[in-house]
Amino acid sequence: MIKTGNIIRKGINEENAYSEIVVAGDFVFLTFCTGNIEKSMQEQVEGTLDEMERRLESVGLKLEDVVKIDVLIRDAWNIPIMEKVFKERFKGNYPARKTIQTDFAHKGGENGLKIQMDAVAYKK
Fold first, then answer.
1. Tens of pLDDT along 85-123?
2. Which of 46, 60, 10, 50 is nearest to 30 (CA)?
3. Which long-range contacts (CB under 8 A, 24 or more apart) does 97-100 make?
4. Dihedral angle computed from the Cα positions of residues 22, 12, 41 and 50, in that order, rounded to the nearest 10 degrees
5. In the sheet that 18-24 helps form, which strands lie side by side, from edge to edge?
6. Under 8 Å CB-to-CB from 8, ≥6 apart: which residues?
7. Domains, the chain, ranges and CATH?
8. Is this prediction's pTM over 0.90?
9. How far apart are CA 113 and CA 59, in angstroms?
10. What is residue 63's DSSP assignment?
């Protein structure tokens, strides 16, 4: 963890030059949330949200504190699977969301990483 003024950075990845969590004032920024890589789409969405929850808990927050999610997805036809899991996990407290289809340069190719999420949470 590094604290610079009022900004706290956690989960610093020196090799790739990013922080998993940045707390800046009342906002918490999460990046590169993934989980259950090489498993089914539903398992990856659930694993990604599990990882997001783990990071949020490390700063005293929950999924319901998330106000914005950017989703990168390998196949846009899997969006209904993602939305089903979101309905179960967010229980009506849905964040604003942007979903973008993309290829991932990640081990496992098409059978590897299927989804990744970045999020912004409100801490008050």
1. 999 999 999 999 999 999 876 766 777 899 999 999 999
2. 10
3. 97/68, 97/69, 97/70, 97/71, 98/69, 98/70, 98/71, 99/71, 99/73, 100/70, 100/71, 100/72, 100/73
4. -60
5. 2-4, 7-13, 18-24, 27-33, 115-122, 66-73, 96-101
6. 1, 2, 21, 22, 23
7. 2-122 (3.30.1330.40)
8. yes
9. 26
10. G
- φ, ψ of residue 51 to 5 degrees: the values are -65, -40
CB 120 within 8 A of CB 29: yes
Give pairs for 11-19: CB < 8 Å, separation 24+.
11/55
Q: Residue 111: which of 39, 36, 33 has the closest Cα?
A: 39
Cβ contacts of 53 within 8 Å, gap of 6 or more: 62, 63
**Of how many residues is the chain composed?**
124
Residue 65 backbone zone (phi > 0: left; psi -120 to 50: alpha; other: beta): alpha
Determine the pLDDT at residue 124.
Answer: 84
